[in-house]
Specification:
Layout (H helix, E strand, L loop, with lengths): L13 H34 L2 H4 L5 H9 L3 H25 L14 H7 L3 H18 L7 H17 L19 H32 L6 H15 L3 H13 L9
Helix pairs in contact: 1-4, 3-4, 4-5, 4-6, 5-10, 6-7, 8-10, 9-10
């Protein structure tokens, strides 16, 4: 029997548990690395207009015919490639080197693009500032790839967790009778901040679930393991599975019903 399929029916010893953990760690790292490889290859194929050479009328028609990918996913892949390119350009420009930063430290699958689309300049400004600070702290020395990857990953997480619109720019409808316009704007702003924090927390739980059970494992197979995680952190299995779907897809509608 294949070693990856044995011992599934019962408990294992510590050596086997560590072996399975290393296999899981490798699988997670492979998924993370593959995402940026995918982004670069999507960008190269689109820039080369490969669909015209192969006789397809459009990028979306090419993606459907060649890979079975629908129109929305095809264009979301282009968004992913654009975000990845902006990050790489920022890193290279700020450090003034062609820096092969560690892709395993950056989890930027398609799920992130929904949150980052339209906020790329905000993201790259933050990355540039953080890299400049780290470079100065290091006395001008070349930053390790893992450090750069960690800075990028932290910036991605921070921007995704921010409200879509700064509180000072929020526009609201007229205040109800008995409440001043200033108080109404303050209440609405605070409420939106809380919603943003709640969504950010749900997304972080989803990322935790993905670190426990990778995205290529279906809900049904993931349920037994994640049920234990959910119980330990005080939520239901349905809730942690919804958070995981949110983290995979980047679509907040995955959280409907929670």
């Amino acid at each position: 029997m294949d070693s990856e399929h044995q011992d599934q029916a019962g408990p294992v010893d510590e050596a086997r548990a560590r072996e399975l953990t290393e296999q899981l760690r490798t699988a997670i790292e492979d998924v993370r690395a593959a995402v940026l490889v995918l982004a670069r290859r999507v960008r190269a194929a689109h820039q080369a207009r490969v669909w015209t050479v192969l006789g397809h009328p459009s990028w979306s028609a090419y993606a459907l015919a060649e890979f079975g990918i629908g129109r929305s996913t095809a264009y979301r892949l282009l968004d992913l490639a654009a975000v990845a390119e902006a990050i790489e350009t920022t890193v290279q420009s700020e450090l003034e080197v062609s820096h092969a930063w560690d892709s395993t430290d950056l989890f930027l699958p398609v799920r992130a693009v929904v949150d980052l689309k339209g906020r790329v300049s905000e993201l790259t400004d933050l990355i540039a500032a953080r890299l400049a600070d780290a470079h100065q702290d290091a006395g001008g020395a070349v930053l390790p790839a893992g450090t750069v990857g960690g800075i990028v990953a932290a910036a991605v997480a921070e921007v995704r967790a921010r409200p879509d619109i700064p509180a000072a720019e929020l526009e609201t409808g007229p205040a109800p009778d008995g409440i001043t316009a200033e108080a109404w704007r303050r209440h609405v702003s605070a409420g939106r901040d809380l919603v943003a924090q709640h969504r950010a927390a749900q997304h972080r739980i989803g990322v935790l679930a993905l670190e426990t059970v990778p995205a290529y494992v279906g809900d049904r197979q993931a349920e037994d393991v994640l049920a234990r995680v959910a119980d330990d952190i005080g939520i239901t299995t349905e809730e942690i599975l919804a958070c995981r779907r949110y983290a995979i897809s980047g679509d907040v509608r995955a959280m409907d019903g929670w």
